[in-house]
Amino acid sequence: MTDTPQASQDPLLLCEDIVQEFRVRRRGGFGTATVSAVSHVSVAVPRGQTYAIVGETGSGKSTFARSVIGAPPPRAGRVMVAGQAISGRGRAASRARGRLVQMVFQDPMSAMDPQWTVEQIVAEPLRAQGREGGRQRRARVAEALDMVGLSPARFAGRKPAELSGGQAQRVAIARALAVRPSLVILDEPVTALDVSVQAEILRLLGRLRRELGLTYLLISHDLAVVRSLADQTGTMYLGRLCETGSTEDVFTAPKHPYTAALLSSIPSVNGRADAAARGRIRLRGEPPSPLNPPSGCRFRTRCPYAQEICAQQAPALAAGPGGHAAACHFPLAAGTAAAAAAAG
Amino acid sequence: MTATAVTPSIEVSGLTVSLLTHSRGEVRLVDDVSFSVRPGAMTAIVGESGAGKSLTARAILGLLDDRRFRVSGRVTLGGADLSGMTARQRRAHIARTASLVFQNPTRALNPTMRVGPQITESITKVRGGGKVSAAQARERGLELMRAVGIPDPRERFHSYPHQLSGGMRQRIVIAIALAANPQVIVCDEPTSSLDVTTQAVIMDLFDQLRAERRISFLLVTHDLALASSRVDDVVVLYAGRVVEANSAERIFRDAAMPYTRDLVASVPDPAAPAALWQERPARKAAPAPGQGCSYAANCAFAEQRCRDEVPSLLPLADGHPCRCWFPVTPSVSHGPLSAATEQGAS
Does B10-114+171-238 carry CATH code 3.40.50.300? Predict the structure, then answer.
């Protein structure tokens, strides 16, 4: 693949067949076992859009996001951002990654060196890129702080301990924006914040996306946040993509039983009445170990609809109308989720 | 809110907690908090960080260091008034009647100790050592593990915390909490570090414990959606004061205090994602208690009176208490001044 930028209708982020595996020592024994953390995940995100990945702890959503920024690069598969391949292990790929992709982490406080000033923190990715002199860097830092609604004069000299949770997350966003990336990976960007501050940060992220034409890859287990911010949503279970489609489709008419179960367990401010109306699907047991994932469909051990074929054949991600696809042998038809909940 | 027929398991009245500082004297962090929880019921204290909700929970359980905090007010646990007891009696009574479940099960458990002994430890310690034999404690520990839904308790008994998933660890913490056979369990953000699917299962477990053992729960949480969908009553705390309290079904629907309304508006609603994008002015920090309503600086309806005088917590026309000079009362049409100011003046 050459490094020439392609036409704008091409997706800004294209992940093809990403595989991420880790070798671990077998418990109490000899030799190693392989954890299949991400298994053949493909995602395409158009410029200016937000793609959200939801799933439980251990579903591989964060590992997938990390393989996009090369921490570590995927074991197999290809990541393209704005037409450039960035999944390699070489120096050029790593430079391109730093320029094109930045990441905002869940806990802003632990993502910052407590000894550094806000100015140093925000300037760090610029320094790593090494493109500009000190004065220009200063200007870029001030610009980035302005963008996130922090006055450079008041905040540039502060240390992380002198920031509130919301301010710290703003600084983390400013740091990500300083190099003017095309893609920003948001890993649980508001989970550590209070609800009222959450709303502020989400609005800020929405505004920045609009003004700077940013593309987001959002990792979250908070489905309300996903619903507000994402254009497209994918659900992951045990390293595989179960369902993908427009956020509207996935939330209102989930096809994969896992998505339906996930959605039915979100509490809502409308209280009990709402929960009763939607019905609730309880998952049996615990997610199986990724060291030894179930054969066929990885969700089958907890699925209320599992049949024999589910153990034998891994279902393919079959696309339906509007790009709404589910990897399931027995996808739910629209409206059956609630009925199924009543029965199960 | 208070049922007169049954004795509440937790009754808090006028609870005030002050931090003793060298430079600024006493700083009041929790101010005149009152509420009660019936046997088998669950009450949620909701609020943002710094609202004083964890401090309230800790003050109830007598966990605050009296060299740093001054606690006043009356707390009744399991029908017995704690204020009349000596420190020693109080500790013994709280240990017998109440338990605490922390937010992070990984930190609450001892990583170097198998989970089974961590459960039996609290059985033997609370019952007074010698009365329970090791074998009896072990039997009871296994029984508790079954009660909280741990599959294969005999095998899990010998697991270390790191060998269990987050949901399983939280179940162990709950089993430890149940070991003393408490009437009251105080949960400080019990499900915040868990997945939504696990959260739903843990909340189901609480429902089961409420129904079967009549245990009362005090849930400290910042998750309004969780509070409104899974508990009986909700107490909203802001800057150390109760600003509104109501049943879970009505607290957000009939919110009369502007803070509660703003809080509800800031929750992203999966059913109405667009509502979030309305720009709102940035919030200012709450001032120190004492000078007017704490929310006045951020309130869209604030007037001079709000900045000068602290409003009292008074029942509105529909009976639910609210701390506001000009409460919004949707159910009684838009006449915010009528009911409230009369009560305020009296």
Answer: yes
Q: List, as one string, the DSSP characters of B322-338.
A: EE-SS---STT-S-TTH
Chain B partners within 8 Å of A227 (Cβ) = 268, 270, 273
**Pick from A196, A198, A267: CB nearest B283:** A196
Residue A162 in contact with partner chain B when CB distance is under 8 A: no
Instruction: Tell me if chain A has a CB within 8 Å of the CB of B267.
Output: yes
| Residue A290 covered by a domain | yes
Q: Does residue A43 fall inside a structural domain?
A: no
What is the biggest distance separating any 2 CA atoms in chain B, rounded to whole angstroms?
Answer: 68
The answer to whether the CB of A34 falls within 8 A of the CB of A22 is yes
Q: Per-residue pLDDT tens for B240-265?
A: 999 999 998 888 888 889 998 888 87
CA distance B334 to chain A (A): 22
Task: For residue A64, tell me if it sits in a domain.
Answer: no
Residues B28, B16 contacting (CB under 8 angstroms): yes
Q: What pTM did the predictor assign?
A: 0.79
Asked if residue A305 belongs to a domain, the reply is yes
Asked whether this complex has an ipTM greater than 0.85, the answer is no
Verify whether the Cβ–Cβ distance A268 to B228 is below 8 Å.
yes
Cβ of A228 within 8 Å of Cβ of B271? The answer is no
Give A-chain residues touching B168 at CB under 8 angstroms.
Answer: 286
Nearest to A106 by CA among B192, B51, B221: B192
Answer whether B281 touches A (CB < 8 Å).
no
The residues, ordered by sequence, that sit 6+ positions from B242 with a Cβ below 8 Å of its Cβ are B32, B33, B34, B35, B235, B236, B313, B321, B323
Q: Is the pLDDT of residue A343 over 50?
A: no
Q: Report the residue of chain A nearest B260, measured CA to CA.
A: A196
Nearest to A238 by CA among A19, A42, A39: A39
CB contact under 8 A, A198 and B198: no
How is chain B split into domains, by residue range?
10-114+171-238, 255-277+284-345
Residues in chain A closer than 8 A to B196 (CB atoms): 221, 223, 262, 265-267
What are the tens digits of pLDDT across the range A15-39? 999 999 888 776 666 677 888 889 9
**Residue B279: band (very low, low, confident or very high) from pLDDT cuts 50, 70, 90:** low
Distance CA A98, CA B232 (A): 50
Give rounded-to-5 percent helix, strand, coil for chain A. Answer: 40, 20, 40
Q: How many domains does chain A have?
A: 1
Q: With an 8 Å Cβ cutoff, is B264 touching chain A?
A: yes
Helix ranges, chain B (H): 53-60, 87-97, 105-108, 115-126, 134-147, 153-156, 166-179, 196-213, 224-230, 248-251, 258-265, 304-308, 338-345
Q: Quick check: B270 and A224 CB within 8 A?
A: yes
